[in-house]
Amino acid sequence: PTQWKQSSTIIIPKKGDREDLKNYRPIALLPTIYKLFTKVLVNRMARQLDEQQPREQAGFRSGFSTIDHFHVINQILERTRECKIPLCMVFVDYEKAFDSMEINAAINALVRQNIPKKYIRTLLNINTDCSTSIRLFNNNIAIPINRGVRQGDTISPKLFTAALEDVFRTLGWENRGIMVDGELLTHLRFADDIVLFAYDVKTVAEMLKELNEASTRVGLRINRAKTQAMKNANVLVKPSS
């Protein structure tokens, strides 16, 4: 139905200066019947979608939480400190991740992850020719939605993580990362929050560059101001010549 393609957007303030538009989060108010419909879709696809997600992704998955990743990071920090192993980490932040991702990237990811075609056709239909309205100065202004997934839609988190998984599958990181319990660990993620691991600055910088290039292809932009790097005392940094 056409009504399902229309929403009203409200702006929720986040932390920081309220005079800065970057510190506000848009939330789409969608028809209740539409959200019930997409919830049914999520329930039907959840098992298949979760099977396509690696253990590194803990966001929006039953049985996973940030506590798991905090525990892993804490163990890595303790072990590298005790054994004097070098460790570099980069905490990656995407700029307006849900608003920037190309919807076609999510649809293509679902195709490659073998989601049934009937669900993909439905998702493509309900995410095509969408619009939202914002009330300004007692006037409703209609705005076409050309990219991003709608925040407030029950299916948006699954679409986002499917597209992000597609990004990581393009990265040739088989020989990157750090050794944890006999296996290489390149990163951890919770939805769009990512931390990269490497033994040296050069490698982790290359990983960040490669991730940025792959992310750009699906519309995602890394926020340089909020992306932070850290290293322990065991990392050797070559003096500048």
Automatic annotation (TrEMBL):
Stored Pfam families: RVT_1
InterPro entries associated with the record: DNA/RNA_pol_sf (IPR043502), Rev_trsase/Diguanyl_cyclase (IPR043128), RT_dom (IPR000477)
Domain Reverse transcriptase: 1-241
Listed name of the protein: Reverse transcriptase domain-containing protein
Organism in which the protein naturally occurs: Rotaria socialis
